[in-house]
Amino acid sequence: MDRLRAGGFSPRRPLALVVFTEEEGGRFGVPCLGSRLMSGSLGADAARRLTDRDGVTLASAVAAAGLDPAHLGEDAEALAGVGCFVELHVEQGRLLDRLPGTPRWPWPRRSWRTGGGGSR
Question: Is residue 98 over pLDDT 70?
Fold first, then answer.
């Protein structure tokens, strides 16, 4: 976002960057946890009760990170303002950089899914 601003980019519509955590489901066992919470496909109360293998609840982990677990959940107002959503993934892992033939920089898969129709 800083580079866009520095380069003089001025979008016609508001632009936001959202970073979801726990999208792989490695700790709490629910893939796409952050985006499911924001969209409402996973209820906030159910999410707060999720536990990791050490018995730590998501609510406790959120609080330990300095955030308020009461703020977890669907954000209908934010979603109503979304005109377009682009999801980008950066593959990661502890051993990824040590595998033979692994590029020094991520290589895009070019997996595109688009849709259209309707009007506003």
Answer: no
